[in-house]
Every structure is written in structure tokens, then in C-alpha cells.
Amino acid sequence: MRIAIAADHNGHALKARLTAWLTAHGHSVDDRGSHTGETVDYPPLCADVCRQVTGERADRGIVLGGSGLGETVACNKIRGIRAGLCHDLWSTRISRGNNDSNVLVLAAKILSPREAEEIVGIWLTTPFKGGVHARRLEQIAALERE
């Protein structure tokens, strides 16, 4: 799978670890930044990853921030993005199974590297359930078109 990934200064170290983990698991990773631990603004990084996904240059995206809250808001401003902030395996399964999330947001200040790897693994392998959830996603898409 082609994964676009980005992180602000809070998620920089975890991004490096996840990039190695994803590559070791056979994924193609496009590291969109930041490439230093210096303070950066996250909205442009979020927009870049999301546009990789909506432009079909990446199959999915991963964004890391301190809490992940602002990143989730920023990602979901991009039409066609369904970003889910996941702190545990339950929310990860819902994010993919029910919401067909195409961008995963992780909170680097909350998750251990092992927890983040576990979440990414579940997120990449959980299929979308369809059915009633597909109808709801169409309703969300209609909100975007308003």
C-alpha cells in the first residue's frame, strides 16, 4: 500500500519509527515532513498528506501531532477526506470498519511507539463494512457538497 505520512515537531520521532515499521511491512512510504524536530505548523502538512490521498498518489495517509485534535480538524477540511483520530484499537476498528477512514491521525504525546504500531497495523488491515455505513458516508459526502 502507498502511504503518505507527515508529522509536526511533536510527532517527528514517532513518524520516523512508523516509517521504518511500514517499510518493513512492505508498504511504500512517502514522508511528507517535517524532516526536523523544529517547531512547525501542522495545517500545511495535513493538507499535503490529504491531497496525496485525494489525488490518488497515496492509498492512505497518516498524520501525527501532539494531541492529534487540530490535525483531525485540518484533515477533515479537505473534501473527500475521512480522518480518524485513534487512541486505541476499538476506535481504530470503528474508524476503518464504519467510517472507511482514509487518513489516520495519531497523538504522539499519548501513544507509545508500540501502541502506535499496533494501531497502524489494525487500521491498515480492517476492511470497510459497507451496508448501513455506506449510506451514512454518502450523507457525510452530501454535507461536503453543501
**Main sheet specs:** 5 strands, parallel
Name the helicity range: 40-55%
- Approximately how much beta-strand content do the residues carry? 15-25%
**Class derived from helix and strand content:** alpha/beta
Number of strands: 5
Shape: globular
Task: Determine Rg (CA atoms, Å).
Answer: 14 Å
pLDDT under 50 segments (min length 5)? none
> In order across it, which strands form the biggest sheet?
2-1-3-5-4
Mean pLDDT comes to 97
Spell out the helices and strands N to C: EHEHEHEHEHH
Discrete helix count: 6
Distance between the termini: 32 Å
Question: Please, could you describe this protein's structure?
Answer:
- This protein is of the alpha/beta class.
- Helix content is 47%, strand content 16%.
- The chain has 6 helices and 5 strands; from the N terminus they run βαβαβαβαβαα.
- It has helices at 12-24, 42-54, 69-75, 89-97, 113-125, 132-145; strands spanning 2-7, 28-31, 60-65, 83-85, 103-107.
- The protein has a 5-stranded parallel β-sheet, with helices on both faces.
- α1 (12-24) links the parallel β1 and β2.
- α1 crosses α5 (113-125), α2 packs across α3 (69-75) and α4 runs parallel beside α5.
- The radius of gyration is 14 Å and the shape is globular.
- The N and C termini lie far apart (32 Å).
- The relative contact order is 0.17.
- The mean pLDDT is 97.
